[in-house]
């Protein structure tokens, strides 16, 4: 795979620096990193005894949960839209 159109962006997430490479804009990569950092801090404040690995897994579980809920909502809206078009 070629690195054409790839952006390398340095971000901080939960006190750690990461270099993220992706085709999205630098501002998008920073927004994603900021949202991950915010979620990790939110979960950590509610569960201060969690180590970083468990905190990262819970953050990933939360993110995938949110994604699946939004995907279900989108599918329902697409069904409603199809009914209206028919």
Automatic annotation (TrEMBL):
<keyword id="KW-0963">Cytoplasm</keyword>
<keyword id="KW-0131">Cell cycle</keyword>
<dbReference type="GO" id="GO:0030428">
    <property type="term" value="C:cell septum"/>
</dbReference>
<dbReference type="GO" id="GO:0000921">
    <property type="term" value="P:septin ring assembly"/>
</dbReference>
<dbReference type="InterPro" id="IPR036192">
    <property type="entry name" value="Cell_div_ZapA-like_sf"/>
</dbReference>
<dbReference type="InterPro" id="IPR053712">
    <property type="entry name" value="Bac_CellDiv_Activator"/>
</dbReference>
<comment type="function">
    <text>Activator of cell division through the inhibition of FtsZ GTPase activity, therefore promoting FtsZ assembly into bundles of protofilaments necessary for the formation of the division Z ring. It is recruited early at mid-cell but it is not essential for cell division.</text>
</comment>
<protein>
    <recommendedName>
        <fullName>Cell division protein ZapA</fullName>
    </recommendedName>
</protein>
<dbReference type="GO" id="GO:0005829">
    <property type="term" value="C:cytosol"/>
</dbReference>
<comment type="subunit">
    <text>Homodimer. Interacts with FtsZ.</text>
</comment>
<dbReference type="GO" id="GO:0043093">
    <property type="term" value="P:FtsZ-dependent cytokinesis"/>
</dbReference>
<dbReference type="InterPro" id="IPR007838">
    <property type="entry name" value="Cell_div_ZapA-like"/>
</dbReference>
<dbReference type="GO" id="GO:0032153">
    <property type="term" value="C:cell division site"/>
</dbReference>
<dbReference type="Pfam" id="PF05164">
    <property type="entry name" value="ZapA"/>
</dbReference>
<keyword id="KW-0717">Septation</keyword>
<dbReference type="GO" id="GO:0000917">
    <property type="term" value="P:division septum assembly"/>
</dbReference>
<dbReference type="InterPro" id="IPR023688">
    <property type="entry name" value="Cell_div_ZapA_firmicutes"/>
</dbReference>
<keyword id="KW-0132">Cell division</keyword>
């Amino acid at each position: 795979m070629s690195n054409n159109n790839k952006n390398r962006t340095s971000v901080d997430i939960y006190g750690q620096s990461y270099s993220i490479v992706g085709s999205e804009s630098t501002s998008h990569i920073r927004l994603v990193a900021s949202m991950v950092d915010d979620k990790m801090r939110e979960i950590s404040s509610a569960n201060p005894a969690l180590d970083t690995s468990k905190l990262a897994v819970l953050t990933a579980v939360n993110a995938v949960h949110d994604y699946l809920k939004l995907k279900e909502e989108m599918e329902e809206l697409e069904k409603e839209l199809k009914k209206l078009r028919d």
